[in-house]
Design goal:
This protein has 94 residues and is mostly helical. The chain has one domain. The longest helix is centred in the middle third of the chain and has 12 residues. It is globular. The two termini are 22 Å apart. Bound molecules: iron/sulfur cluster (SF4).
């Protein structure tokens, strides 16, 4: 698969979420709120969501991690169901 986001050349990605990547994978609700707010300002939000859905396919919520494009694992699973994604990564239960 060709990467839709190039973290080396895409300055927006470098500036916004690579400065503190732990924020996007934190279990603290306050951190996740900040991450979501930053995603809302990110010009890559739509692409980011598409990449997450492409990578995760129809994976179960417990196999999804972090905030991508402002969406948490439950929201991404719901979106995957709504868009008809049925792919489940090999070895994972949906
Ligand atoms: S939408 Fe959020 S997670 Fe995606 S690249 Fe932008 S800041 Fe990072």
């Amino acid at each position: 698969m060709t990467a839709l986001i190039d973290p080396v050349t895409d300055h927006a990605l470098l500036v916004i979420c690579q400065q503190d990547p732990d924020l996007w994978f934190s279990n603290l609700p306050s951190d996740r709120t900040v991450a979501r707010e930053l995603c809302e300002e990110c010009p890559l939000q739509e692409t980011c969501i598409r990449v997450a859905l492409d990578i995760e396919g129809g994976a179960a919520v417990q196999h999804r991690h972090g905030i991508w494009g402002g969406l948490d694992p439950v929201q991404r699973r719901r979106l995957a169901e709504e868009t008809g994604l049925t792919h489940t990564p090999e070895g994972e239960a949906a």
